Amino acid sequence: MKEALAEAWEEAREGLLLHQDRRVVYLNPRAAELLGVDRGKVLGGPLLLALRDHRLEALALHGGERRFEVRGRHLWAKALPGRLYLLDETEVQKRLSELEETTLLLAHELRTPLAGIGPLLEALTPRTRQEEEVLSLLKGEVARLSRLVQDLSLTAPGPKRTFFPSELWPRLARLLPLEGRRVEVDLAHPVRADPERTFQILLNLLDNALKYGRDPIRLRSREEGGRVFLEVRDAGPPLSDYEALFRPRHRGFQGGAGSGLGLYLVRRLARAQGGEAYARREGGENVFGVVFPLD
Fold first, then answer.
1. Which terminal residue of the chain, N or C, has fewer Cβ atoms less than 10 Å from its own Cβ?
2. Would you kindly state one Gene Ontology biological process term found in this protein's UniProt entry (predicted)?
């Protein structure tokens, strides 16, 4: 079994370095390639000689995980006692840059037709109550698409104000397929943020929960440590990798078939306001949320 495990690491696409007393006791071929060193020359030598980067050395000695740019490569590194795992994310970062360019182009192309649709809708005169309701819905959808285009354009955050997220619920309820679903709403804590961006965040989180989660779905707020948390919880099965879901075009939900951009946008919108997005398993629920500083 040990021989099979050793052979597997020799062929692995991930880098592995083992160290003891600040000396290298093993590194696989992939680790040597990512670090740009000769395996035979660094085995048994000082850890820094193999890593050639004080940041990587500090991580290896103290533990944790981080992303680094090292000698032209984008590396994800995770350190456990005596072990350092390395993964090359250079291609991922390249694709992210390409995606940003595509996103900007898409936003630019959408902005012009949306700007023309709005005035056309305003010029329409509904003759019946039903037509009035449909027109109102169309105006709301055009406004939402316009806000989405602004978000895709990487524009600066809108003005912040202190408000109760419960103010956003009526709009959310009109746009989401809630019929026959059990959704519990408890938004009792004020948050200081851009209401429009917060609306888009909650819309994406709830849309994912309704598509892929299980009832009950709970939209709640809580305050802790000088921060306000807005969370969408559902009773769906645990997922294999929560952090990966925030990567663009990554779909980790069972049977998921969307664009893979919803949670990526959630994180970007949260960070644009000085907050952060997160996901985890807690108490038998999948939790997707954002956190903002109180002040």
1. N
2. osmosensory signaling via phosphorelay pathway
